[in-house]
Design brief:
EC number: 1.2.1.3
GO molecular function, one term: aldehyde dehydrogenase (NAD+) activity
Bound molecules: nicotinamide-adenine-dinucleotide
Helix content: 25-40%
Structural class: alpha/beta
CATH architecture of the largest domain: 3-Layer(aba) Sandwich
CATH superfamily of the largest domain: Aldehyde Dehydrogenase, Chain A, domain 1
Shape: globular
Distance between the termini: 82 Å
Radius of gyration: 23 Å
Strand order of the largest sheet: 14-15-16-13-12-17-18
Strand content: 15-25%
Number of helices: 16
Protein name: aldehyde dehydrogenase (NAD(+))
Pfam family, one: Aldedh
InterPro entries: Ald_DH/histidinol_DH, Ald_DH_C, Ald_DH_CS_GLU, Ald_DH_N, Aldehyde_DH_dom
Length: 486
């Protein structure tokens, strides 16, 4: 049944410069998680569509990689401008698919920022040379892989489209992007903008659909030489397995987290409360680096918890299309039920301080009250697994050694934060934390724009970032040249 929201939304696949339906006509529905009304029917890319997208990218590669990089950059700049221009429309499409409030949506701007920046980054594509081998000159060439697959999640699809596609394209690769089945609408709109931006057919291909078949086929495709993935630990494992079984394609993995924030008793408590609360409430807790475990030193624990729970309970949930809403629903029913299951486990293992209520019945949408648990044993499931909802565990600690051990007792290692006014302690703890990112007196989602981002341990492999992502999409070839004495 069509709803009002569906009018004018016509997502299609982008294959070889054409916007098309799925070859077998299959679609899947996207419902607004706030209202459960149908937002759109979306093409489910078939095996044939996926193979066609890879074939188109392969055919487009020789000309695209040989093109003057300023011309590659010109298409990218044009796309950046179009994405920025369509910010409100993209915000609305995300709101009616995965529920992010339009007031929180800044991803069109970050996406455009990536396209603008990488459009001008081509002078940094450089090899090196030496005369250290007597009688020879040696050098390296940095060259694109060819067809690169980019598989992105739903929690910030537009952002990841930019952070992955832009560096892959400027380095001369052609791409097949697979959007998430939970949030395909905004990325499908970007497919239309990519045509308007003038990319030659086959350079950017965009598929919508579930992990199987399209994601799985990309992971095992012999013509895909490099695959960059952001998503869950489990899917990362599956992709890595497929790659290992087939052509050992290069795989970059940005996975989940169970990020700790540590608050010592000399910290600026007000700032620590405000920032750690924002971290775990932003995007309704559906952020890989959200500080979902907070450790507070015993002397300030009571004050911290009281201020934190007050702020956490004061969010304004509601229609994500309304400007005043700052807390949207969970992305869909699967996410909702998953988070509610963890909340029930949390009630059994720890002490519920605030929230714990799902509002499916009362609001007819997948809203969950921000939830705080106290004094949960470190061994409990909820302390180990990624919940991906507005749920946080706050525990107390006494000593530095104790809290470092607790913070590191996880298979994840994406982002950690430490709040203290003691610089020596801050640096000791930062060094000891097993984490790809550490915030000192600040926390996620804050990142330095030119720093590498990525995980220790099960949070991933490889790094992304303005100075790092191009490297992910470039092979290195060594040349040795003999100089004859004449
Ligand atoms: P997910 O792993 O379920 O899905 C991610 C993408 O993989 C989707 O496009 C999905 O269709 C595809 N996929 C699913 N099964 C596949 C398969 N068998 N083969 C190939 N592709 C397949 O993750 P999600 O639920 O979309 O996203 C949430 C997860 O992403 C969380 O774990 C979160 O922490 C993580 N994440 C990590 C970062 C980071 O930078 N480290 C950023 C955002 C999100």
């Amino acid at each position: 049944m069509a709803s009002q929201e569906q009018e004018g939304i016509n997502p299609r696949l982008l294959i070889n410069g054409e916007l098309v339906e799925a070859s077998d006509g299959k679609t899947f529905p996207i419902y607004s998680p706030a209202t459960r009304k149908l937002s759109a029917l979306v093409p489910e890319a078939s095996a044939d569509d996926t193979n066609a997208a890879v074939a188109a990218a392969k055919a487009a590669f020789p000309a695209w990689s040989a093109l003057d990089p300023t011309k590659r950059g010109a298409c990218m700049k044009k796309l950046a401008g179009l994405i920025r221009q369509h910010n409100s429309e993209l915000a609305q499409l995300e709101a009616i698919s995965m529920g992010i409030p339009v007031s929180n949506f800044h991803y069109a701007h970050t996406c455009a920022f990536y396209f603008d920046n990488y459009a001008e980054a081509w002078p940094h594509i450089q090899g090196q040379s030496s005369v250290n081998t007597p009688g020879h000159v040696t050098m390296t060439l940095r060259q694109p892989y060819g067809v690169v697959a980019l598989i992105i999640p739903w929690n910030a699809g537009v952002h990841f489209f930019g952070s992955k596609a832009a560096p892959a394209l400027i380095t001369g690769n052609t791409v097949v992007v697979k959007s998430s089945e939970k949030a395909p609408l905004a990325v499908a709109r970007i497919a239309e903008l990519a045509i308007e931006a003038g990319f030659p057919p086959g350079v950017i291909n965009i598929l919508s659909g579930h992990g199987v078949p399209s994601g799985q086929i990309l992971s095992r495709h012999m013509d895909v030489r490099c695959l960059s993935f952001t998503g869950s630990f489990r899917t990362g494992q599956l992709i890595q397995e497929e790659a290992a079984r087939t052509n050992l394609k290069k795989v970059i993995l940005e996975l989940g987290g169970k990020s700790p924030a540590i608050v010592f008793d000399d910290a600026n408590l007000e700032k620590a409360v405000e920032q750690t609360q924002k971290s775990v409430q932003s995007n309704s807790g559906q952020v890989c680096m959200a500080n979902t475990r907070i450790y507070v030193q015993r002397g300030v624990a009571e004050r911290f918890v009281s201020a934190f729970t007050k702020r956490f309970a004061a969010v304004k949930d509601g229609d994500p299309l309304a400007k005043e809403t700052n807390h949207g629903p969970q992305a869909d029913e699967v996410q909702y039920r998953n988070v509610m299951r963890y909340i029930e486990q949390g009630k059994a293992s720890g002490k519920l301080a605030v929230g714990g209520v799902g509002k499916l019945e009362s609001k007819n949408g997948f809203f969950i009250e921000p939830t705080v648990f106290l004094d949960t044993p470190e061994t409990a499931n909820i302390m180990k697994e990624e919940v991906f909802g507005p749920v946080v565990n706050i525990n107390t600690f006494d000593t530095e050694d104790e809290v470092i051990a607790k913070a590191n007792d996880t298979e994840f290692g994406l982002y950690a934060a430490v709040y203290t006014r003691n610089i020596n302690r801050a640096m000791r703890v930062a060094k000891a934390l097993e984490s790809g990112y550490v915030g000192i007196n600040c926390t996620s989602p804050l990142t330095g724009r030119d720093l590498p981002f990525g995980g220790y341990k099960g949070s991933g492999q490889g790094r992304e970032g303005l100075l790092y992502s191009m490297d992910n999409f470039l092979e290195t070839k060594s040349l040795i040249i003999q100089i004859d004495d004449e």
